[in-house]
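To: structure desk
From: M.T.
Subject: fold request, one chain
Message: Could you run this one when you get a chance? Sequence is below, nothing fancy, just the single chain.
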Amino acid sequence: MADTLGAACKLCRREGMKLFLKGERCFTPKCAVDPNRRPYPPGPHQQRRRKTSEYGLQLREKQKARHIYGILERQFRRHFAEAERLTGATGENLLRILEMRLDNVVYRLGFADSRAQARQLVTHGHFTVDGRKAAVPSHIVKPGDVIAVSPRARELEYFKVLAPDLARRQIPAWLLQDAAAMSGRVLRAPGRDEIDSALHEQLIVEYYSR
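Reply: Done. Structure tokens follow.
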């Protein structure tokens, strides 16, 4: 499995906003995106921002989406090509595909504190989709699919500690969580208003349309 290397907090500073890449740390004073700490991008001589070009805005939005969902360029481009083939607005289709990746659904159901942790859990084979082992984070789930912690994984200390707190986690309306069974069901594809990622998807469409 390929993954983005480097310090996750630097990615948030580069985009100038919280991408929620570090789980609970993002909600503490230790978060790198704090106006009282370093309100400028990482790297030398970054304290003074220059005016960003139209291309720069499009590039940064595409990079922001990649970092939020933890996807490398080749796979992100494949998702975009798939979004173009579907009917409807390409940008909304893209966000819907990203949201319905298995690793993101595991994160949204509250089984992981971050998408990076969700990818690791999925890759290690700790989840099933409709009763079958699923170890591919990029697998696109469908309405009606049931995602569950595998019986063997439930014996792990991580899931034993997680179980009492699972029911208190906030779950989006397009998913249904069954905390007692440590599972969740995809009710439907999410609408644009149900995707809380602070992204301007039209800029991403314009980037790939150049």
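Reply (cont.): The chain has eight helices and five strands. Let me know if you need anything else for the meeting.
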